[in-house]
Amino acid sequence: MFEKVLIANRGEIALRILRACREIGVATVAVHSTADAEAMHVRLADESVCIGPPPAAESYLNIPRLMAACEITGADAVHPGYGFLSENARFAEILETHDITFIGPTSEHIRIMGDKIEAKATAKRLGIPVVPGSDGAVTSEKQAAAVAKEMGYPVLIKAAAGGGGRGMKVAHRPEDLDIALKTARAEAKAAFGDDSVYIEKYLAKPRHIEVQVFGDGKGNAIHLGERDCSLQRRHQKVWEEAPSPGLNVEERKRIGAVVADAMRKLKYRGAGTVEFLYEDGQFFFIEMNTRLQVEHPVTEMITGLDLVIEQIRIAAGASLSLKQEDVTFAGHAIECRINAEHPRTFRPSPGMITYWHPPGGLGVRVDSGAYQGYRIPPNYDSLIGKLIVHGKNRNEALMRLRRCLSEFVIDGIDTTIPLFKDLVKESDIANGAYDIHWLENYLKASEQKP
Ligand code: ADP
To answer: What residue's CA is closest to ligand 1, atom 12?
Structure first.
């Protein structure tokens, strides 16, 4: 086992990783920018190192500074969390060459899955069903038009290097195609420095279903069921739950088995998430994330497993601690992302939290680094915490969620809590009858109300 893990992240996820390390007796190193000197992950870590000024490029994304922090503290492993350098193959490679373990998959697997065109081709080869679309990148308008015509409109132009919903444009008719291509390319170039794009059939009313997997790099792999992340705004997840209210037992088993089998063939190591769109009983692969996800707690709540401890064990060379038949699922879990944002305009709302009262009780989990008197810096993602509830069934989880939302008080800043209070009143939410467009349509409709 490792002696000291450096956590190359901030906020709630840094704290989440720290807690796992502490439980298994591994020392922790927090890194932080000058904006985060007072952050909870810094206060609770065994050691901390300031790695630079507030801009992420000069701190959390700065590989030389992170390497220096490893050297100074003698950390023998790095957990990257999510975002920042978690899917940076180069970082994983540099760590390996310095004999420091990257808690994640091989740099080769990160690289393959980081290029969405290559990821899709790999998924197909491994027997995973993919969204119909162009075979690889589209290089000309003519080629794009031909592919789109064959598939039928609407189509979606997507960036090969895409992430966070950027570089994605819909063309509803042939006359939209040219502009969609141009804007997707421009957006992709600006965001990722790479303007390669590909085309997919645009699905009208799918659910976003993702399967959590674990491999040990030795050919063993299991799945931990699915999460439903269909409630999205601008392709960003807002609410996640497990199991999905849209799948039946047979579908759940089938997709889990397909994914676990593919990961065995790939000899995948560590935690990963294979994302699908699901429509009319069919699954279509869209991408794979080679890291821990924001929404991993809902899986933990229904399986009783600690995904971060499992990640650390596997990175330290252990085999999977479970076989597929040992994994059991109990009850239902829902996560709400608490962002420091206006609940309707979604304008970021950094600043001082003047009052903080989180909910508690049976089946309630709040993952957050926030506290009363904490000043949220304006430099980073607006996620300040996650409220996760667990119940014997979906109905109990929803009732518990309603109760928790009424108990949660955060003063001094705007948060997304009022949005969730409205959502739990909606019958479609109560019935689990929503697809990836539901939230956008709901927001549009409520904007029009006086
Ligand atoms: P990113 O890596 O930018 O998050 P994804 O490929 O994971 O991009 O897609 C993000 C979201 O965009 C999906 O959850 C879904 O809401 C929407 N989306 C992606 N592909 C399609 C498609 N072919 N048809 C309809 N919606 C899509």
So the answer is: 235
Ligand 1 close to Cβ of residue 200 (< 6 A):
yes
- In DSSP notation, 117-164 reads HHHHHHHHHTT--B--B-SS---SHHHHHHHHHHH-S-EEEEETT--T
DSSP, residue by residue, 31-90: EEEGGGTT-HHHHHSSEEEEEESSSGGGTTT-HHHHHHHHHHHT-SEEE--SSTTTT-HH
Residue 231, pLDDT > 90, answer yes
For 112-152, the pLDDT digits (tens) are 999 999 999 999 999 999 999 998 999 999 999 999 999 99
**Residue with CA closest to ligand 1 atom 1:** 163
∠ Cα 116 219 326 (to 5°): 105
Say which DSSP state 382 is in: S
Q: Is the Cβ atom of 160 under 6 angstroms away from ligand 1? A: no
Compute the distance between CA of residue 13 and CA of residue 296 in angstroms, rounded to an integer. 11
pTM score above 0.90: yes
- Cα–ligand 1 centroid distance for 67 (angstroms): 34
> Which of 234, 286, 436 most suits a substitution to test ligand 1, by most atoms within 8 Å of the C-beta?
286
With a 6 Å cutoff on the Cβ, whether 203 touches ligand 1 is yes
- What are the angstrom distances between the C-alpha of 145 and each of 157, 180, 187, 197? 11, 12, 20, 13
Give the residue whose CA is nearest to atom 17 of ligand 1.
235
- Span from the CA of 50 to the centroid of ligand 1 (angstroms): 36
Mean pLDDT of 286-307: 98
Instruction: Give the residue from 135, 127, 168 showing the smallest Cα distance to 151.
Output: 135
Structure tokens at 395: 């109905």
C-alpha torsion 142→147→151→152, nearest 10: -10
What's the mean pLDDT in 74-101? 98
Output the CA 33–ligand 1 centroid distance in Å.
32
Across 295-424, the runs of DSSP E, i.e. the strands, are 332-339, 351-352, 355-357, 364-368, 375-376, 383-391, 409-411
Tens-digit pLDDT profile for residues 150-199: 999 999 999 999 888 888 999 999 999 999 999 999 999 999 999 999 99
Instruction: Work out the pLDDT band at 321, boundaries 50, 70, 90.
Output: confident
Instruction: Work out the mean pLDDT of the chain and round it to a whole number.
Output: 97
Give, in degrees to the nearest 5, the angle at Cα 245 between 425 and 430.
15
Average pLDDT over residues 283-297: 98
**Which strand (E) or helix (H) includes residue 29?**
strand 27-33
Reported as a pLDDT band with limits 50, 70 and 90, residue 450 is low
Q: Is 291 a catalytic residue?
A: yes
